[in-house]
Amino acid sequence: MSFDSLGLNAEILKAVQDQQFQTPTEIQQQAIPVILSGKDLLASAQTGTGKTAGFSLPILQKWADLQSTASGKRGKRPIYALILAPTRELAAQIGENIRDYSRYLPVRSLVVFGGVSINPQMMKLRGGVDILVATPGRLLDLVQQNAVDLSTVKILVLDEADRMLDMGFIHDIRRVMAKLPPKRQNLLFSATFSDEIKTLAQSILYSPEIIAVARTNSASEQITQYVHRVDKNRKRELLSYLIGRDRWRQVLVFMRTKYGANHLAEQLNKDGIKAAAIHGNKSQGARTKALADFKSGQITALIATDIAARGLDIELLPYVVNYELPQVAEDYVHRIGRTGRAQHQGQAISLVCIDELPQLKAIEKLLKTKIPELSTDGFAVNPDIKATPAKKRIAGTTRHKNHNTKAANPKYKNK
Prior knowledge:
By secondary structure, the chain is α/β, with parallel strands linked by helices. The chain contains 14 helices and 14 strands. Strand 3, helix 5 (119-126) and strand 4 (131-134) form a beta-alpha-beta unit.
């Protein structure tokens, strides 16, 4: 199947070609015709399989069709489609994708989220917007300021709906629903079909089509998963060792806490590995810069809390490391889904101490598979072995010529 066969106009197809998309993914093949038909949709697919294009392309097509039948000059642009996302990063990524797909259309899109001044967003809304991408909290702030009118919305999208529920947005979602017209098309996209998602779908969707293109809570087959057993106090040492030994140029590292992310970034920088942290306490400017520096290769390691488990779309990201396993097994799938995207291969490595064995078992139960364990030559990784002193030399490493990684230099001793 090709994009030409999905009922998209020439302008959208040209934009798709500009993105060098060859054939639609499975979720796109199934979702686009359903959305174009006007039916409500409940869709689940593995992260990284093209869900954003799956709803953005048909929304743009339906908007274009509406404009072709409109007569005369329009007044202020009413909001045609509202897309809700759980995090700033995901909202920004969706907005970027929509701009790419609509580059040959006269559509106006806008992304609004918290952490930045609300005034510029209010000014842009006054000029009229066709497609609005928003996080729930900032959208409600704008509603309270009478800066946005949701009564004209024809299509509502809840993207990463399971994450929104995890983050406690259910009350905000209900408040948004109360501002929308009762007659509209509803699209709910989620990486998982949990019981909570099914309950939410029943309250929002009307006779929806249901699409599930992959086994629930499964990881992409393009991701190779490994576990390294290591003493808790030596995780940072092992991470530096792996980055240096294998000359990693780009690795996304997940932590549980904001403090832990900051601390690890500081320690890696001391090891000679350029690193930055990204989490909810960082300003939006700092988060945007860290992500931009990571994408451009100016930093090697981006240390993130689970706020970045959704919405980070990093082309050809080769490695994801779970420095700490998540408390909720489903979050593991979302984390490692940052690699192995768009038909590319990736590796997910988890550094597991003895205290995290229950979480590891829960993840393996969820995935219905045993994650293979790796040993590291020259580095004791058995959690039952007493950790060697931090100042002991890391053996068997080579200097990282690209990153000046001290931990990869056999002459370097951890201090």
